[in-house]
Amino acid sequence: MDEAEARKVQKTDEEWRTQLTPEQYRVTREHGTERPFTGPFLNEKRHGTYSCVCCGRALFRSDTKFDSGCGWPSYFAPIDEHAIAEYVDRSHFMVRTEIRCANCDAHLGHVFPDGPPPTGLRFCLNGTAMTFAED
Questions:
Q1: Distance from C-alpha of 74 to C-alpha of 55, rounded to nearest angstrom
Q2: What is the pLDDT along the chain (135 residues), one digit of tens a residue?
Q3: CB neighbours (10 Å) of residue 75?
Q4: Where in the numbering of this chain does the MsrB domain appear (predicted)?
């Protein structure tokens, strides 16, 4: 087991269900998606940090957030290269890149290669999967 695996947050389904709302559980633990234009933080404009709702790990900063028009909060870069993990998602007859919290494997959303400079990436997140702390 490497150092990152040793730090991973591991809980039972019952522990996650106790900690999270039913919608947070559905999105983060069952790989669900909130309906577009309905989740929290879509129109959030304050400066701050977006963190994982499950474990509290800092994921994205407000200075990387942009309005993609897709209906979910979008960012062009994570807070650091170790904050998220990428997985191939072959659900819904598509091949996409799923992103999860590197600490607890919470499903966050997907990343697409159609974002703005400087990265050209669009990290499309479920607001339900995050918390926000204003600077």
A1: 20
A2: 334 444 788 899 999 999 999 999 999 999 999 999 999 999 999 999 999 999 999 999 999 999 999 999 999 999 999 999 998 777 767 677 999 999 999 999 999 999 999 999 999 999 999 999 999
A3: 25
A4: 13-135
Q: pTM value? A: 0.90
**Residues classed as catalytic:** 124
Q: Residues annotated in the binding site, as ranges? A: 52, 55, 101, 104
CATH architecture under which domain 3-134 falls: Beta Complex (2.170)
101: left (phi over 0), alpha (psi -120 to 50) or beta: beta
